[in-house]
Specification:
The structure holds two protein chains of two kinds. By secondary structure, chain A is mainly α. Chain A contains 14 helices and no strands. The chains are: A mainly alpha, B alpha/beta. At the A-B interface, helix 1, helix 2, helix 9 and helix 11 of A face helix 2, helix 3, helix 5 and helix 6 of B.
Chain lengths: ~350, ~300
């Protein structure tokens, strides 16, 4: 089987090389020869140059998102592997309150102790699902963790000029929405959804190994980490490309939107948040910069939905929770955030 | 090579991880991590790269270990003629399994391996192939085209024209030349953009020195440009340009993206439509719109820290 994989990799590699190498060489050549950007060619508005300069503008944004997000994804993958290897189901069951409602609330708080940004929560969520933590609690964790942590709250505090109001609103509503969705998921999960989620999670994760010896354990944690990492990294690359493209598009097209109604503003801000896919440290600052154009409710909605749903999670939730569970979660996120945005 | 044929997927993945870590180290070593990330995040990125290498090395050691053990066991099984020894070798094989849990596909070559459960089997899905392709493409891009600090590319390409530019009269500076006796103070565009609206008197008629790059919006009169610099919070993705209009008699001489240090006096004049441009959008709604009348413009080398951060 491995030999066939190698053959296919070679085929894909050849196709890619046929396209990529000449393009890269061409760009490299132009950059070297013309001292691109330093010469009067800037003044010539040829479409070709425009496209090239857009790509040049987008490249640092694309790479920055990846370089910044990767340590957090790696941290999430490592934590997830540690849970997978070292924390047994029985221990987790003991830690979580038996009452399912309380379990959801405590899972929401778990994010406070695990400050991985929203990229890192998915692997951890998957591990928890495999350890038979109830779907509602895992949902609450996955939705609340990116926001309910000291780093994000501090960032929000600083971004809005050292005022507590926005940070507090964000904390309260993020936690409430996460727990509410967790409760609703639990109700629904009593039927067949939890099996779906468990099945989805197990399918994507190799079996737990009965390792003995420190070396074998460390090794199996590393192998599991690599597996989790490469499950996610494809989505990271795609969403980084979308976000970079959108940032450049927005800058070049000077999107000044005249918003006639608050509700429309909320919808626009939510859409932007999903497209930007910002990390939890930065989204407060970006949100602040929109304050003069949109209502405070819209800005709050931007921050709420940006961490629960973004281009990446939209693709990852169905894979992690199973389509049947993920779809209601997504719909509820959007609906609840919209409600908060309009009425705050 | 036989050793790579055993688990090519894991080998490829570890190589990709090492290559990415090498990229981060390359940027850090050449001091170019600052074109992508804010200072705090840079440390996180380097730590992440070190972790990445550590995980990859453990995995590689494991892969080599598996390969040599399997080869040794197979050699023993093959070379042994005595059935008892063969059974012993096979038992040896089994005990290794017990110690080392993972029965990889590579041990399939042993005829009895199929009896053992595959506890660690990578299903190669379409998505994982696409992921690998994207990783390779991204790394190729990253290494072949060094990321440049954000400049005017995204500001000029949209063809943002300053309306009203044809009304040259509207661009008149105050007629009396402002000569300020105050000493020249170093400041940053971030400070000007945040503090000017609240306290314009602190800046007006004072002399300052600013560093930034040149931006000629299309339609701007040729003796004006906007000195710009990006402000970032975490990484280049949240960058926002901040700038101030500069009047200089040889403004046309400086091309877009040229890094300069301008010394001059700040004055205020109504400037039509400049608040519609991204770097000067902070002019919006404020009565006083600053212009820096340049007395001296120095070309400088592009700084290693091209962006401004929250101190």
């Amino acid at each position: 089987m491995e030999v066939a994989l190698l053959k296919q990799m070679r085929k894909i590699g050849k196709e890619l090389a046929l396209w990529l190498i000449p393009i890269v060489l061409l760009l490299f050549f132009i950059e070297e020869v013309s001292g691109f950007g330093d010469v009067a060619i800037e003044q010539l508005y040829i479409v070709y140059v425009d496209v090239l300069s857009l790509v040049q503008a987008g490249e640092p944004i694309f790479l920055a998102i990846i370089v910044e997000a990767l340590p957090f994804i790696l941290a999430g993958a490592i934590i997830s592997s540690l849970i997978h290897e070292w924390v047994s189901e029985e221990r987790l069951a003991r830690w979580l309150p038996a009452n399912s409602v309380l379990a959801i609330f405590s899972a929401g708080f778990l994010g406070f102790f695990l400050p991985v940004c929203d990229c890192g929560t998915i692997p951890v969520a998957r591990s928890l699902l495999i350890k038979k933590v109830p779907v509602g609690a895992v949902t609450a964790f996955a939705l609340a963790a990116p926001t309910v942590n000291p780093i994000t709250l501090l960032a929000t505090f600083f971004a809005f000029g050292m005022t507590v109001k926005m940070a507090l609103l964000r904390l309260v509503f993020s936690f409430s929405i996460a727990c509410l969705i967790g409760l609703i998921t639990t109700k629904a999960a009593r039927s067949r959804f939890s099996e779906q989620a468990l099945h989805a999670a197990t399918e994507l994760t190799p079996n737990r190994t009965s390792s003995v010896g420190l070396y074998a354990r460390v090794r199996s944690i590393c192998d599991h980490t690599i597996h989790e990492l490469f499950e996610i990294v494809g989505f990271l690359l795609l969403s980084a490309a979308v976000a970079a493209g959108f940032q450049v598009y927005r800058a070049t097209h000077q999107l000044f939107i005249n918003v006639h109604s608050d509700a429309v503003g909320v919808v626009i801000m939510m859409g932007l948040a999903i497209l930007f896919s910002l990390c939890s440290g930065a989204d407060a600052f970006v949100a602040r910069s929109f304050m003069s154009f949109f209502s405070p409710g819209a800005v709050l909605a931007f921050m709420l939905i940006g961490q629960t749903l973004d281009a990446r999670n939209l693709l990852l939730f169905p894979r992690t929770f199973g389509k049947r569970v993920a779809l209601p979660i997504i719909i509820l996120c959007v609906a609840l955030t919209f409600t908060v945005g309009v009425f705050v | 090579m036989a050793i790579f044929q055993r688990q090519p997927l894991t080998w490829i993945r570890t190589m990709l991880m090492l290559t990415f870590a090498a990229f981060v180290f390359k940027l850090a070593a050449t001091g170019r991590l600052g074109t992508l990330l804010a200072p705090t995040i840079r440390i996180i990125a380097v730590i992440g790269a070190i972790l990445l290498i550590a995980v990859a090395i453990v995995a590689i050691i494991g892969l080599c270990n598996d390969y040599y053990k399997a080869r040794a066991a197979a050699a023993i099984a093959r070379s042994s003629h005595h059935p008892h020894e063969q059974a012993h070798a096979h038992g040896h094989l089994l005990s290794h399994h017990r110690d080392e849990v993972r029965v990889h596909d590579d041990l399939c070559c042993s005829p009895h391996a199929s009896m053992h459960a595959h506890s660690h089997h990578h299903t190669v899905t379409r998505w994982s192939k696409w992921t690998l392709t994207m990783c390779v493409a991204t790394l190729a891009l990253a290494f072949s085209w060094s990321p440049r600090a954000l400049g005017t590319q995204q500001l000029t390409s949209g063809g943002a024209v300053v309306p009203g530019q044809l009304d040259r009269a509207a661009w008149k500076l105050p007629t009396e030349t402002i000569k300020s006796a105050s000493p020249v103070a170093d400041t940053t565009l971030a400070r000007v953009a945040t503090q000017f609206p609240g306290a314009p008197s602190r800046f007006l008629n004072h002399s300052f020195r600013l560093t930034g790059f040149v931006y000629h919006p299309s339609g701007m009169p040729s003796d004006y440009f906007i000195i710009t610099r990006y402000f970032i919070y975490c990484c280049a993705a949240d960058a926002s340009p901040l700038g101030i209009t500069v009047h200089s008699s040889d403004a046309w001489h400086y091309l877009n993206n040229t890094w300069i240090t301008v010394t001059g006096t700040i004055t205020s004049a109504p400037i039509p439509m400049v608040s519609k441009l991204a770097p000067t959008s902070w002019y919006q709604g404020h009565a006083k719109q600053p212009i820096m009348v340049a007395t001296d413009v120095q070309l400088i080398k592009a700084p290693t820290e091209p962006y401004m951060y929250n101190s």
